[in-house]
């Protein structure tokens, strides 16, 4: 049952008003067809605009979620790299001191490990409050992904003599006693 029929049955309108409204509706439609005028429905436009805004908002939320997931995956990769490539500290003989966010920290290492850290062959990384020693190649991989995990990496030192040594031409005697 149409709305017109319901209004007629309830006594809220008359049959003459219904026929007059229908004829006006037909006349407008005929004029629009004759002049090829498109009828714009404001409600339809508003609904389409709301749908477009909602779709844009959903895309932005999905981008944020994807960025968070990528960041989480990156952190997991870095943690796995550190934990799977950590080096043994050796038999603790020497204390190696380093700075972490302005605080002096220390770890007990062997002489060989101490030398490797000093020469840049090993670097110090941190996960939460735990420190790990990792090879330089792994440090470079970590630096590409998340440099905030790296605490210390020394530049590799060369064991070459300086070229501008003024005493390079002089031999040091073997029997020199101090």
UniProtKB/TrEMBL annotation:
It comes from the Bacteria. The keyword Coiled coil applies. Residues 158-167 have a biased composition (Acidic residues). Residues 44-72 form a coiled coil. Pfam families: DUF2058. Keywords: Coiled coil. Residues 18-43, 156-178 are annotated as: Disordered. Residues 25-36 have a biased composition (Basic residues). This is DUF2058 domain-containing protein. It comes from Aliikangiella maris.
